[in-house]
Design goal:
The protein has about 180 residues and is mainly alpha-helical. The longest helix is centred in the last third of the chain and has 30 residues. α3 packs across α4, α4 packs across α5 and α7 packs antiparallel against α8. It is globular and about 55 Å long.
Length: about 180
């Protein structure tokens, strides 16, 4: 029996690695960067609310996933989560060493100075989730297309049902964040 296909087939491990070109300085209109900026400046209560609403996978770019992961760990631990503490945590785990570390440090500085208002953090978080929701439909379509090509016929329907359940869960999550699922 062939194993069911993953939602995002082929290369998922590579997608989680920061590649050349992932770190740039054009973060002026990037809602993920603005969300991270607002999160860095947010008071503890607002930061905890945003961290509870967001998931690392909601961020498309690996550098954003990495920074969100560090920030969320600090917030959940009740520690300060500003730029200095994020940089200290990156250094502690060995991610500020060498050329890539210097690039991370510059990118963190760029995000910190984007000027996003922490008061808008909830709006940024919902927009990040909304963008991830749309990407999940593209990934679902790719997964179904790959299934049509590669899976045995007796597994096609169950694969489609599994994909549909994930999309339904994503829809409910987005609706809850928007306050529409109550």
């Amino acid at each position: 029996m062939t194993a069911a296909l993953e939602l995002v087939p082929d290369g998922a491990d590579v997608a989680d690695q920061i590649q050349v070109g992932d770190i740039d300085t054009n973060t002026h209109t990037d809602v993920e960067a603005l969300c991270l900026c607002a999160l860095l400046w947010a008071p503890n209560e607002a930061a905890a609310r945003a961290v509870a609403a967001l998931e690392t996978a909601d961020f498309e770019r690996p550098i954003h996933r990495e920074l969100f992961s560090v920030i969320s760990r600090l917030v959940r631990a009740g520690k300060p989560h500003g730029t200095t503490m994020v940089a200290a945590e990156l250094e502690r785990i060995g991610n500020l060493a060498g050329h890539h570390g210097a690039e991370r440090s510059r990118y963190l500085a760029n995000i910190t100075t984007r000027g996003a208002d922490h008061v808008a953090l909830d709006h940024y978080a919902r927009t990040v989730v909304s963008q991830a929701y749309r990407r999940s439909f593209r990934a679902a379509a790719q997964s179904l297309a790959q299934a049509a090509e590669q899976l045995p016929e007796d597994q096609l329907f169950e694969h489609m049902v599994a994909v549909g359940r994930r999309q339904r869960a994503a829809t409910h999550r987005l609706n809850r964040l928007r306050g529409e699922d109550q």
